[in-house]
Amino acid sequence: MTKDTTITRRALLQCAALSSVAAISPAAAFAAADAPYPSRPVTWVIPFAPGGATGRLSLLICERLSLRLGQPFVLEHRPGAGGNVATRSVASAAPDGYTILATSTANVINASRDPAPTTAEGNDDLVPVAGLARMPLLLLVSRQLPVKTLPEFLAHARANPGKLTVGSAGPGTVQLLSADLFRTLGGITWSVVHYRGSGPALTDLASGHIHAMFDNTAAAVDLIRSGKVRALAVSTRERAAAFPELPPVADVLPSFETSGFYGVAAPHGTPQAIVDLLNREINAALADAEINRHFAELGATPITGDSGVYAATYRAEVMHWRKLVAAQASPTR
């Protein structure tokens, strides 16, 4: 487990189920009355290695929560299994508001593989708290690769079947699914290299150890602006506000469209009063002008609304990815 010692203050979490409101036990009610929440540090679990979009967005929000709620929010990275290691650990944590999960598109994709109807976070052991942001992905290439445009990259990949290496943030992640969709629609072949998050993959891309990858604007922005990697296109049908010069992949591959989706969840049984408190505070943070400025620099669009709105958005996102996963010509590697 990797711990990010950057501390942000005060707490997020305790919640009840979203679709079916769980009853608060007398013991929980007594504890809440005895020690107003939060009364100690909160662990904010990030399912990937440091350096990715989930961590960067989480840090901005946690700093605001710490100041507003008066307790540290400790960012703790628990990478592995495409986000499942962290998800399982939070799902099994005490529903007391002191362990919270930063969710991402990986949770949505994992839920999309389950044929059963999706409820809340797509996992009966978690309840939705709030949305954080949506953002496009970028097709990134090593500057050592002799291409400067999307058509040049496609031509190069087709002329060198199986010779390119593409980075993945892990199985079931939006980075890998985007790469697989691109590979299928582009009629190309390459080798996938899996990492425990996009941070390590980006490091290898910048050093030329891999040739290409898809990643979120928030994770890649610094490397792009410092000239260490080259961005060729954006994954959404609209151009990204942070990189308006980049064309959509759909300009060349019309069926292509993906994006990153981020939010917050808590263990099932967390009192609704705590869910509501966290939701209000996260929404207040998302409305802050300074945080909005940082989000815009990272290419992120805030997702606001109560936990019910977030749950509905989450379910819609699962259905979207379910269609994309089913449409793949070959299984994700």
Automatic annotation (TrEMBL):
It comes from Bradyrhizobium ontarionense. Pfam families: TctC. The keyword Signal applies. Residues 1-31 form the signal peptide. Belongs to the UPF0065 (bug) family. InterPro entries: BUG (IPR005064), Bug_dom1 (IPR042100), TAT_signal (IPR006311). Keywords: Signal. This is Tripartite tricarboxylate transporter substrate binding protein. The keyword Signal applies.
